[in-house]
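Our preliminary data section would be incomplete without showing what the modeling component actually yields. Below, a chain of 279 amino acids is followed by its predicted structure, encoded as tokens that our downstream tools consume directly.
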Amino acid sequence: MVIGPALALQHSDKPHRNTVMTMIFMGIGLGVVFSAVIMPLLLQFSLSVTWLAIGSLSLAISGLMIIALKRLPVIPRAIVSSDASAPVATGAVWLVISAYALDAAGFIPHTIFWVDYLVRELYFTPPQALWFWFAFGGGCLSGPLMAKWLVSRFSWHRALWVAYALKAAAILLPVLTAQPLWLFCSAFIVGAMTPGIVALTAGRIAELVGTTLHSYYWGKATAGFALLQAIAGGVMAYYYQHVAEYIPLFITATLLMLFALLCISLSPFFHSKSVKQSC
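Predicted structure:
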């Protein structure tokens, strides 16, 4: 999650970097679709068979990855460090990283609690609720394609802003309506913007700090993402255990996404200040 994007970025020509940075995260969508379609079929056999299948698939993919890595050419150090002197917009980068961490907490209701919310509070049957999880997975699969389209039409900053705005609106939808069509749209959009924001954040950080420093700042972003998601997941689970109502969680998640959107909106101003100070 940290080294992979940085490595792909270093081995990509500048004209193709936008495409690489958006498409590299399609694996997230494939994993969600796999969990929605294949996992229920495997669980019909046994939990042991399911774990064996997942482990075997992971081992096979790891083997293919090792073979592919051995075929990559070694990049001379002089080329790798060619943009090391680029000005680092520290304030802007940390605002983007902060927004990314808030996003990690913002979509928790649509992942950990989504199916349970549909079954427990809206009285969908488990097979019916699975279709909404499949919508989330379908969105995840198409998210990098949407991110690529946004980057081709706008700047990295503007594309990231649009992605956060769409995701915030989609997270709010279950608060406003329980109609299946809108819930399906909500799941699809949140699913699409989940890897979409990952890809756009990685690209935006690369734009701000260059390819050499990208792995450092992207590592910080990933650590913040994981930490806040773990904390928020525990807090939300504790809240539901005592209140047993999901709607307040969706409202809280929407507010978190709006704060993230504010961070993204402010980042260009801090970018300008950082660049001026470095000159």
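Residues 180-243 form the longest helix (64 residues). The chain is about 80% helix and 0% strand. Preliminary results of this kind motivate Aim 1 of the renewal.
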